[in-house]
Write a structure and sequence with these properties.
This protein is α+β, with helices and mostly antiparallel strands and 141 residues long. It contains 6 helices and 6 strands; from the N terminus they run E-H-E-H-E-H-E-E-H-H-E-H. Strand 4 and strand 5 form a beta hairpin. Helix 3 runs antiparallel to helix 5. The chain is globular, with a radius of gyration of 15 Å.
Length: 141
């Protein structure tokens, strides 16, 4: 994975609601959970009265990895569950998550850092089943 970007971006050739459903399904097949999500679009509309394209953040975890990481170092709870952001762009959806270069450079002790890395790897593996990886330069209009 590339070290120059703080995030990894994937493109799903589906409109937002369909892509959101696909992401949830593929994460579930990897035994990953989404215990919480934030509808950014609704929040912005309620708080600021502005409309945006659909955007949602899924907080993805694996209970076993979360337990492993938090029992070893409670500070890891600041970054777990992983944040996976989906943003609609007409007939396609972009998915963003933290890159492994950032995940592994968080100055965590080795064991919790390994748990974060395992979770990130599982999320990436799931996304690659339904999405194509996009380079930063491909995203600029």
């Amino acid at each position: 994975m590339e070290s120059g970007s703080a995030t990894l971006t994937y493109l799903i050739a589906e409109p937002f609601e369909s892509a959101l459903k696909s992401v949830r399904q593929v994460l579930a097949k990897e035994d990953l959970r989404v215990p919480l999500e934030l509808d950014v679009t609704v929040r912005i509309r309620k708080e600021l009265g502005l409309s945006l394209a659909p955007c949602r953040v899924l907080f993805v975890d694996c209970p076993v990895l979360l337990l492993e990481a938090v029992t070893l170092d409670s500070s890891v709870a600041a970054i777990l569950p992983l944040h996976v952001a989906l943003a609609g762009y007409g007939p396609q959806t972009r998915v963003h998550l933290i890159s492994s270069s950032v995940a592994f450079n968080l100055s965590l002790p080795p064991a919790p850092s390994a748990a974060v890395g395992k979770l990130q790897t599982r999320v990436v593996r799931a996304l690659e089943k339904i999405a194509s990886r996009q380079a930063v330069c491909e995203l600029v209009p």
